[in-house]
What we know:
Layout: E1 2-8, H1 14-22, E2 29-35, H2 43-47, E3 55-59, H3 69-77, E4 85-88, E5 94-95, H4 99-108, E6 117-125, E7 141-143, H5 144-152, E8 163-166, H6 167-173, H7 184-192, E9 197-209, H8 222-239, H9 246-262, H10 266-280, H11 282-294
Parallel strand pairs: 1-2, 1-4, 2-3, 6-9
Antiparallel strand pairs: 4-8, 5-9, 6-8, 7-9
Helix pairs in contact: 8-9, 9-10, 10-11
Amino acid sequence: MLAIVIPYYRITFFEATLQSLAKQTDTRFKVYIGDDASPDRPDLLLEKFRDQFDYIYSRYSENLGNVSLVAQWERCLKLTADEEWVMVLGDDDVLDIDCVEQFYSHIENNAAGDYNIIRFASYIINAAGELTSPLFIHPVLEKSTDFLLRKVTGQTRSSLGEYVFRKDVLQQIGFREFPLAWHSDDLAFLQCSDFGNIYSNNEAVIYIRVSDLSISGKETNIDLKRKASYRFYTLLACNYSKYFTKSQKLKIIHKIEQYFYRNKSMRLFFNILALHFRQIGVFEVLKFVRRTYKN
């Protein structure tokens, strides 16, 4: 069975999320809502959906998301029961009416059953629920490393809500802590796939909301996002480089360089110098020194 976990905090768009669950053409799912000590209790709103789908609501006395969004995700995951699959859905995101039906269709015909991650297609919507992007679809089978590099180079996008994970694998690996949990989902899909294939179900669509209330849409947290990106790409370059091709390693190191050019320090300079030398070669060391001089 499928568990849909919602780490809840803001009520602004929550009704649209709940309505999308109530409209599912396949009801073989259970929803687990973990209230992160929100000032906007959703009790009355949830009561409207009492008989429309199966859910469990838990309210926590401590607000963890303000300190660690990853910690909030993981305690919400602990609410689940014996479901085999789990997705972590934002409290402002929306599922198309046949998402669950399409999920089971691909599981039951054995197309997706051998993989640890199933990915849905996605649109971005704004605060008004209007589409602000084209439909993002993916190869049916794609190496997670190749997908990450498509994302790094601006060819695609992703967020946590459009993935369904095999639950035992996700719980064993967990989410890595980064500021704002920025890239925590990226590392999760790499590790849960064992840096191998992700299966894509392009018939199912998730609407990911990006607004001034969301981490992705805010302009006031850019410095924290940059710090998270630096830590994430440095982790990949130092600990997981064997999974990437030489050209992919170079693109990852270039992402680390972007942080260096904004926050120049000798420590960062020598760290990137060492990465170029170990991962790419002397020629790239010289090119990096020249880029540094120009910047």
